[in-house]
């Protein structure tokens, strides 16, 4: 990434790095123990062993058992970017994204009382900048109360930054089956009445777009019509929040599409959670997805349609990762290939 960590903090801020400065994933202010405990909760952890590791890191941070470094004494690029859009942040927590060609940095902005004002995403690589521009487009067209509000997109340092509002709600457990309200949330993203498969913009875009011809799977879906939907593209437990009224809201729309295909997000949720949390074999995960999709009365999907959608969801995710620059022999990419080939 082309921006130094200290550029995200007000000058003179003492900063901790978790787990350490050799392999930093999270940077946070080191001023107060309670602040360190609360803000270190942003450290990512979904599996049980990862949550235990995070707890140990947070205890160490609260006790200030980690090395402290001081942000540069002059200049605050993040503060200049935010000026005039949100109240001036009193503190910042910085999370390094998953390493890879499209890696991003996310800064959580808080006021003097510890309340979250918003989030800033920074992209240094071209692949990451492309994803931020896509997220801006999707957020700008979302119905209300579904996701964050886009605030600003523009250059920051040598990269691109996207500023967006905070979304209230509590994190969901990374578990199957998909949480209650998933179908209701996805139904709110339907944009058009059902149309013939051959006229669907997502289908037209998918044909001939990658190394495998999806026509056999598409033919299975040709006997009925399908609506155009806003597709999240990374519909997973860690990108969903449960609001105070019980409704689900979604964050991280960088893989979204404004002309998507229905039920792919639900199939993706099952596959991604199966692969990353449960460590299931690809075909076991595919069987679970087919059983779940075909077993939902509201979806009215046959088993053959559910299987076609599961294969298409794996293929769609594979193409997006390949577009980011991930090699076909990575574990997750190979896992996805096994889903559509099995």
Descriptive report:
This protein is of the alpha+beta class. The protein has 2 domains: 5-165, no CATH class; 170-341, Aminoglycoside 3'-phosphotransferase, Chain: A, domain 2 (Alpha-Beta Complex). Helices cover 35% and strands 18% of the residues. It contains 11 helices and 13 strands. It has helices spanning 33-39, 48-62, 77-82, 126-139, 182-187, 201-206, 215-220, 264-276, 282-294, 303-324, 331-341, and strands spanning 14-18, 26-29, 68-70, 91-96, 104-110, 116-123, 150-156, 159-165, 170-171, 229-231, 240-242, 248-250, 257-260. The strands form 3 sheets. It has an 8-stranded antiparallel β-sheet. Strand 1 (14-18) and strand 2 form a beta hairpin. Helix 8 runs antiparallel to helix 9 (282-294). It starts with 13 loop residues before the first strand and ends with a helix.
Describe, in short, the structure shown:
InterPro entries: Aminoglycoside_PTrfase (IPR002575), Kinase-like_dom_sf (IPR011009). With 342 residues, the chain is α+β, with helices and mostly antiparallel strands.
Number of strands: 13
What percent of residues are in strands?
Answer: 15-25%
Secondary structure category: alpha+beta
By CATH reckoning, the class of the largest domain would read: Alpha Beta
Number of helices: 11
Biggest sheet strand order reads 3-1-2-4-5-6-8-7
Principal-axis shape: globular
Report the C-alpha radius of gyration, rounded: 21 Å
Number of domains: 2
Secondary structure: helix percent = 25-40%
Contiguous uncertain segments of 5+ residues = none
InterPro entries: Aminoglycoside_PTrfase, Kinase-like_dom_sf
Pfam families: APH
Protein name: Aminoglycoside phosphotransferase domain-containing protein
Domain Aminoglycoside phosphotransferase: 219-275
């Amino acid at each position: 990434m082309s921006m130094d960590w200290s550029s995200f903090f007000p000058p003179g801020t003492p900063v901790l790095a978790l787990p350490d400065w050799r392999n930093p994933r999270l940077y946070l202010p080191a001023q107060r123990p309670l602040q360190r405990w609360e803000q270190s909760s942003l450290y990512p952890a979904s599996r049980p062993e990862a949550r235990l590791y995070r707890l140990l890191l947070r205890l160490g941070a609260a006790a200030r058992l980690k090395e402290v470094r001081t942000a540069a004494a002059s200049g605050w690029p993040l503060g200049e970017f935010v000026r005039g859009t949100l109240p001036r942040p009193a503190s910042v927590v910085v999370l390094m994204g998953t390493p890879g060609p499209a890696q991003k940095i996310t800064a959580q902005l808080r006021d003097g009382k510890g309340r979250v004002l918003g989030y800033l995403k920074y992209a240094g690589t071209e692949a990451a900048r492309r994803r931020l521009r896509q997220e801006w487009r999707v957020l700008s067209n979302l119905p209300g109360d579904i996701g964050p509000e886009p605030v600003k997109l523009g250059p920051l340092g040598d990269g691109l930054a996207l500023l967006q509002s905070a979304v209230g709600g509590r994190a969901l457990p990374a578990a199957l089956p998909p949480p209650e309200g998933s179908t209701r949330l996805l139904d709110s993203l339907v944009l058009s009445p059902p149309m013939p498969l051959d006229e669907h913009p997502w289908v037209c875009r998918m044909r001939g777009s990658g190394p495998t011809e999806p026509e056999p799977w598409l033919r299975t879906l040709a006997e009925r019509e399908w609506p155009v939907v806003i597709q999240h593209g990374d519909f997973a437990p860690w990108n969903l929040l449960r609001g105070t009224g019980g409704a689900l809201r979604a964050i991280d729309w960088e893989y979204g599409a404004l002309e998507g295909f229905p039920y792919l997000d639900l199939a993706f949720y099952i596959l991604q959670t199966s692969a990353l949390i449960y460590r299931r074999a690809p075909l076991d995960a595919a069987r679970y997805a087919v059983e779940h999709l075909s077993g939902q009365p509201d979806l009215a999907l046959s088993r053959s349609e559910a299987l076609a959608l599961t294969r298409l969801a794996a293929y769609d995710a594979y193409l997006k990762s390949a577009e980011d620059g991930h090699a076909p022999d990575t574990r997750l990419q190979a896992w996805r290939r096994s889903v559509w080939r099995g």
